[in-house]
Amino acid sequence: xxxxxxxxxxxxxxxxxxxxxxxxxxxxxxxxxxxxxxxxxxxxxxxxxxxxxxxxxxxxxxxxxxxxxxxxxxxxxxxxxxxxxxxxxxxxxxxxxxxxxxxxxxxxxxxxxxxxxxxxxxxxxxxxxxxxxxxxxxxxxxxxxxxxxxxxxxxxxxxxxxxxxxxxxxxxxxxxxxxxxxxxxxxxxxxxxxxxxxxxxxxxxxxxxxxxxxxxxxxxxxxxxxxxxxxxxxxxxxxxxxxxxxxxxxxxxxxxxxxxxxxxxxxxxxxxxxxxxxxxxxxxxxxxxxxxxxxxxxxxxxxxxxxxxxxxxxxxxxxxxxx
Length: 323
Known about the structure:
By secondary structure, this protein is α/β, with parallel strands linked by helices. It is built from eleven helices and eight strands. The radius of gyration is 18 Å and the shape is globular.
């Protein structure tokens, strides 16, 4: 069904401005393309060496291709990165809300791959994008060479009580009384580190984007067993929505060829720091290139203890909560 992700024209202008701002944070040039799909033209950002191996990257809910690529800069040195804007989840994506109970999202992504002439790709998805990536790999395993998932939706469910007390109530408070303090209270359970742009953007989306309260359904064991390609699962130890140990544990216990890692000190939204970007790019590069002899040290043994020691959201930097 049709479902614009903006509430009115003023909201669309603000969301487009945010898209441009995050695109400006991408450290290398990228190009925009529109690819035909069954839901109309789909916007895609593409960057990296023209002869690099294709790596399709799917963004979280209520974000976009530019937002994700702004955090994946190091990957653009090695891969031809293709970042589509997911329908109903980005100001640049097709303005349609796809059903979650069938394979509609996978069929859309396969249309994108067909439109770009891509037969087999590496596929990486974050949160909602992880749900779309997993579903696509289950529906068409021959099209996905390797699959990596970061805090993916649709694998396990978090505690409803914790979600209500630590997220839903602060969300309601912020929607009723927009202030920096209330925005911080809402984002504290979500953000591993504080970033003024991300915080202000997320605050604006609460005003400018209608809420989609649907939750991607959990994959069945049969759907997970269809993931015959190598799979990398990265969970966040302090993720209220999709607890990292449970995500990694389920995937490793069911998927035929899976490896996993629980990132220490990490909430649902991973750190937005140069150290974490470098670590994530290295982890993904080693996985997608299957580089022999490349060390795959757990994050908490490399940058985790240094990165997350004493880090809290409250009290870090100002945010434009009232815009």
